[in-house]
Amino acid sequence: MSISMQGPEAQSLCSGKNCIVVGSAPGRVLPEKREGDVVIGVNNAAIWAQKSGYPVDIFYSIASMFARKFGAKNKLLKGLVASRAVLWHADFQVSLADFGITVGETHYLTRQEGLHMVMNICGYPLWVSSGIGAACLALQGGAKSVKMVGFSLSDFRHADIPRRFSRRVYRDHVLEDGNFLTAIKATSYGGLFHAT
Length: 196
Description:
Blueprint (H helix, E strand, L loop, with lengths): L7 H7 L3 E5 L15 E5 L2 H7 L4 E7 L8 H4 L6 E8 L13 E8 L1 H12 L7 H11 L4 E5 L13 H4 L7 H11 L8 E3 L1
Helix pairs in contact: 1-5, 4-5
């Protein structure tokens, strides 16, 4: 199933809400959560947010994270509960229950749909990180504001991946994310988006 970003399904995700996008950069600090805020947990950061007392409304992840080769990393998500999941760059269906993840609904975005979503927000077809993708989902869904925590333009290490993996795991979207941050300032979304 594919999300229609202009349709009521997307609008119901974040429409009119303050959204907190929780990423995996080391040193992140969660802001005070106010009633009605929507928490979007990105990849393995979702379980950290939940364990920190922030129930996850939307679990946003790249679909390939659930390919067999990443089994040791996605096991960290066991016990995650979210009302919705959005898997992007999806070219196959995933049963999240097989990974111990409980969600009400799972939606899929193909690579092209994800690229189109980013272009709608910043004006350019950029291959951004999952964290920026989650922020774009919220903005296009009508969010009142989006605050990103655990976001970094460093290409090294994720806080939610055990150290035995972290030396081999690099962020490969640093340049594109930087370009996105520059581009969004010139759009109507610029004032709604805050990355820390």
